[in-house]
Design brief:
Oligomer: single chain
Number of domains: 1
Helix content: over 70%
Number of helices: 6
Shape: globular
Structural class: mainly alpha
Length: about 180
């Protein structure tokens, strides 16, 4: 019980600090040209290394907070965050990123999925011209940076002893 409480506390604390840092410190510096998403790596990590119910609940809460702070209709980030969690959860049995290079490639792929999925949702729910307002260069730079930050989140949370429920070494890739 103590371990679960500690896990919830650490994930929610990290998420709140990351959201604050992302929207209060990074957004004014980057002048809203780039959106560095520090939560992306946490949601991917939850999909890979936490049990289904805990990971899904934590991802739901984090995605909701992200949407509430962003100023965009909160359902956009909630839907995108939960889709990212489910996608990472489904891929964890097929792909096991144990080495840093594999983690980076995996994070870039999921960051691309998340970014495009979020843009589609924002275009549908917020305004139709959303794609035309974003430069493809900035889009690829966001995906690149979000993938790098995701690997840093992987490293940070894997250093906390006993923090993941599903041991990475036990995640064997299935041969198809």
């Amino acid at each position: 019980m103590r371990k679960k409480l500690r896990d919830w506390f650490l994930v929610i604390l990290f998420a709140l600090l990351a959201i604050f840092f992302q929207f209060r410190l990074l957004a004014p510096i980057l002048k809203d040209k780039l959106e560095i998403n520090l939560i992306l790596g946490l949601i991917i990590w939850l999909g890979f290394f936490k049990k289904e119910t805990e990971g899904a609940l934590m991802s739901f809460i984090i995605s909701y907070f992200l949407g509430a702070v962003s100023g965009i209709w909160s359902g956009v980030y909630l839907f995108s965050g939960m889709s990212l969690y489910l996608f990472a959860r489904l891929l964890r049995t097929r792909f096991s990123p144990l080495k840093i290079g594999a983690q980076l490639l995996f994070s870039w792929a999921l960051a691309g999925f998340y970014q495009i999925f979020t843009l589609i949702c924002a275009g549908i729910f917020v305004k139709k011209e959303y794609f035309s307002e974003i430069s493809s260069g900035f889009l690829f730079l966001e995906i690149f940076l979000n993938g790098l930050f995701a690997v840093l989140v992987f490293y940070l949370f894997n250093q906390i002893e006993g923090f993941f429920d599903q041991i990475p070494e036990a995640l064997e890739t299935k041969k198809v």
